[in-house]
Specification:
- This protein is α+β, with helices and mostly antiparallel strands.
- Strands 1-3-2 form a three-stranded antiparallel sheet.
- The two termini are about 30 Å apart.
Length: about 150
């Protein structure tokens, strides 16, 4: 398993920290620390998977995977300190303890009708899930939202 944290892609314009911040900012900025850590955990789960790029920026910048314009839109500096703290923490190894191997999420208000979604967590306004064979799905619906697990 190789995790690349330096020399991220996307034209080398962004560092791994900046890419992680962008994922957290555009996918969970208006949410809780738990939501940001969960998004960061999904990014890192993808980085170590052989199905996705092996760098933070490669994962975050992958087309049609995260928020539109994630690598180019402007971020509001007022909320960056909390986003930066969470991003640094994930890059140092913190993971949301309930995220497991989840590599996917959507807005908690969205209702999907697929039979291969095994939900592991709802936090920060997002529902996190693993894709499994339908016979192995034991949690086909998002559970109740949980907050406050990653407080520092």
């Amino acid at each position: 398993m190789v995790v690349v944290l330096a020399g991220c892609s996307f034209g080398n314009r962004h560092s791994p920290l900046e890419c992680m911040e962008r994922a957290m900012y555009f996918e969970s900025n208006q949410s809780s620390r738990d939501g940001m850590i969960a998004v960061g955990s999904v990014v890192m789960n993808r980085v170590v998977s052989d199905k996705y790029p092996n760098s933070v920026c490669g994962v975050v910048g992958q087309k049609n995977q995260f928020a539109r314009g994630i690598m180019t839109r402007r971020m509001d500096g007022k909320s960056l300190p909390k986003v930066r703290e969470a991003a640094k923490s994930v890059l140092r190894g913190e993971r949301h303890p309930l995220i497991g191997n989840a590599m996917f999420f959507h807005s908690a208000s969205y209702r999907a009708s697929y039979d291969n979604m095994h939900y592991v967590l709802v936090t920060g306004g997002n529902a996190f899930y693993e894709r499994r064979h339908r016979d192995l799905v034991t949690q086909p619906y998002p559970p109740q939202s949980i907050e406050g697990i990653t407080r520092r």
